[in-house]
Design brief:
By secondary structure, the protein is of the alpha+beta class. It is built from 3 helices and 7 strands. Strands 5-4-6 form a 3-stranded mixed beta sheet, with helices on one face. A two-stranded antiparallel sheet has the order 1-2.
Length: 187
């Protein structure tokens, strides 16, 4: 342990002495290398699956397919409670950006009948925890098992004011799928 601390201190000293310190950024303790955000005792993908800027969200999947895709990257679907907590933030907001609906804040009143690429949605559609597009772009599957509520949360590009943090859609319909429904992963 002592050797590791000395090595880190020496590495930082070398960076500083070579004039490279300005380009060196310490990692954000709330964000993991695989683009996840820590919220309390769990981590949530910053964006919809595949959680990669420039990619389209994966849609038109059943709950089982979404669950399997999360497991394929050693994650899991978010629970309903985790999803709502991430969306409402510590203030318990109605929308991730505030208490009043504003159709310009998230991709919920799109003129194009399709989701936007990850990272191209409004930068204002972010929760207090730093999670993007919980209310817009695509609905999201939540639920860990068929023993609990399996449902859709959030809003798609055509949801308008019904894209609230607390609204539920498709409760216990795990075989439903839509081009408006995707998911994100947690761990």
């Amino acid at each position: 342990m002592k050797t590791s601390v000395v090595m880190i201190a020496c590495s930082l000293l070398v960076l500083f002495s070579l004039g490279l310190w300005a380009n060196f950024a310490l990692p954000d303790p709330q964000q993991t290398p695989d683009n996840m955000i820590r919220i309390g005792n769990f981590y949530m993908d910053k964006y919809e699956f595949p959680n990669i800027i420039g990619a389209f969200p994966v849609t038109n999947v059943t709950w089982n397919e979404a669950k399997a895709l999360c497991e394929s990257v050693e994650k899991r679907l978010c629970t309903d409670k985790e999803w709502v907590q991430a969306c409402r933030g510590p203030q318990g907001l109605r929308y991730p950006y505030g208490q009043e609906y504003d159709g310009t804040q998230c991709n919920v009143e799109s003129k194009v009948d399709a989701p936007q690429r990850i990272g191209e949605t409004p930068k204002t559609c972010v929760s207090a925890y730093g999670v993007y597009d919980l209310n817009g772009n695509v609905w999201e599957w939540v639920g860990m098992s068929l023993d609990e509520d399996v449902l859709i949360r959030g809003g798609a590009w055509s949801s308008e004011s019904c894209a609230e943090c607390a609204l539920k859609f498709w409760v216990n319909s795990p075989n439903a799928k839509s081009d408006r429904a995707g998911f994100r992963c947690c761990k």
